[in-house]
Give the backbone structure.
Amino acid sequence: MTDVENMKDLMNGAVPDAAAPVEHTPDRAAGYVLRSARFLCAEALEKIISPGDRVIDATMGNGHDTLKLCELVGNSGHVDAFDVQEQAVENTRALLTENGVLSRATLHLLGHQHMAEVVTAPVRAAVFNLGWLPGSDKSVTTRWDTTLPALQAALSLLEKLGVCIVCVYPGHAAGEEELKNIRSFLSALKPREFNVLEQAFINANAGSPVCFQIQKQ
Ligand SMILES: C[S@@+](CC[C@H](N)C(=O)[O-])C[C@H]1O[C@@H](n2cnc3c(N)ncnc32)[C@H](O)[C@@H]1O
């Protein structure tokens, strides 16, 4: 498959693993105006986060998002990252160590629904990349009953103009339920308090990622 065909697949959401992390690859899509929802979210983080910021990765997984956040906050900032699986914490620790940024993060083996118990200062951004640990047996996936309190906590921790990014993968039952409920929860937020943007390719495969950007007013 050529690079262009690959890119078209990515743009249509036809990713090989429906729970793959946000892409951080260099720009392979020069010339394409419409970009994958996940790419746009990654791009939004780059615009929002500055050195010295405090941010949250609500779903550590293999650490790709945590690494990106560590790079963006620099030496003077901090990332609090959460996951319920030891394997995710170990994989993330290894990735951050390899890239020399481990000191910029606290890796919590803790459900994100408990984030407010350990993060008390306001944060510039919070990232949710929902689903299961890529490369795992898919038995542990995020679920709406814990995603809801986590989202509520993240929104209340955001500083003014801070942004929360949520990527949902509706290609499996729990993801489908999450998408329906997240859309309904976020639609009900008061526009005086939050602006909410939903991004997806509407002619893509049914299981393609849907990303939400929520900015606190
Ligand atoms: C799609 S992966 C995240 C990918 C990750 N951001 C990356 O860059 O590799 C979703 C992760 O959410 C984790 N997870 C499931 N339930 C959770 C919970 N209640 N709190 C925090 N993480 C959870 C899973 O263990 C899995 O590692």
